[in-house]
């Protein structure tokens, strides 16, 4: 087996395009197959036209290839140069133009995720970014492949509208080329938000410290968030997971801490418009992140800062606030009483109308304690209008949410809270048994 010297490798690299393997073999005093093997080892591949009678590449053709690479398709370049697609791709590799999708005004969706600092979770990103938030994605064909691509100008317009959703601190500067002016400022804000809040797993030491701080009964949500370097939502979830009874103290509903002023509303609106996190806005207002989120949802029925930014525009706080649906109005404190009162009146009118139309002649049974939906009247009456055993269903009060509900059987919780407690127990069982496995 021939042993190649450094001088021979240099000669081979300088002349492999000019000479054939047979000519090089005579120079090196070896077999042509050994020359071909050495070229393959050094990745010195020849173009078919370099020594086979085809026309060589001119500087003008190379300039055109460099200009159009990644902008138009490989087939379009090959047609413009009157060459095969294989020859175009080989020449592009030799010129160091990189892969086709790296050389234009767009990148593939997977390359975009990697540039943004996200690794894996392709299906989640496809649903969360594209389907739910409308990231514009196009299809490009390269030979026999179909690739999802994103145009960079469309991406930056989309990213500006969803700046609160994207963590720009994970993205290296200029990873996608030239960036809009607002990206550098947003990256600094995201760095600050990530430095304030930890996102690692809870340890036994952190759980013990949380229990100790809660037992002191002197920390609010905002103060506890700073002490633990975690968000209020993370602390709230951990308290529920551990089954702790202690809670952070509530801010008194009086003075600057309990009443929202016009100045505070202006700070909140400016913070959302500029892409600040809820934690940063809470620090500027002197309240907790939880209080900020609650106020945003109270007025705009969503905690998504990007949606709120599109609603408020350049106006003051409250601009573009949507009207709550009946389902939302039932749970909002500002509309709860009126909506429930109207629903009760509507229910009574509908039942009266049903009685008039003859759909249910004995509507009293719905309010009678003696009625059973399957067994019928437990008092043995056949006519509710002449019944003297009528007993009205007494009101009950939910021990969880405090709502008033009417049921014949004695219950501790209302129907909605019973369903919620069931779901909570199921989630707890899954967490417990998933750790055991």
**Considering DSSP H and I runs of 4 or more, what fraction of the residues is helical?**
40-55%
* Main beta sheet strand tally, sense and closure: 3 strands, antiparallel
Shape: elongated
Rg is 35 Å
Number of DSSP strand runs: 7
* Total of domains: 6
> Biggest sheet: strands side by side, in what order?
1-3-2
Distance between the termini: 57 Å
Give the topology string: H per helix, E per strand: HHHHHHEHHEEHHHHHHHHHHHHEEEEH
Q: Can you count the helices?
A: 21
Strand content: 5-15%
Mean pLDDT: 82
Instruction: Tell me the structural class.
Output: mainly alpha
Uncertain segments: 49-53
Keyphrases for this structure?
single chain, 437 residues, mainly alpha, 6 domains, 3-stranded antiparallel beta sheet, two-stranded antiparallel ribbon, 7 strands
Report on the structure:
- There is one protein chain.
- With 437 residues, the protein is mainly alpha-helical.
- It has 6 domains: 6-41; 59-102; 106-196, no CATH class; 204-242; 255-322, Arc Repressor Mutant, subunit A (Orthogonal Bundle), CATH 1.10.10; 394-437, no CATH class.
- It is 51% helix and 5% strand.
- It is built from 21 helices and 7 strands.
- The protein has helices at 6-15, 21-28, 32-41, 59-68, 74-81, 85-94, 109-115, 122-132, 152-161, 181-196, 204-215, 221-228, 232-242, 255-258, 262-273, 278-285, 289-300, 305-312, 326-331, 336-357, 415-436; strands spanning 106-108, 138-142, 145-151, 371-372, 376-377, 396-397, 404-405.
- A hairpin with a 3-residue loop joins strand 4 and strand 5.
- The model is unreliable at 49-53 (pLDDT under 50).
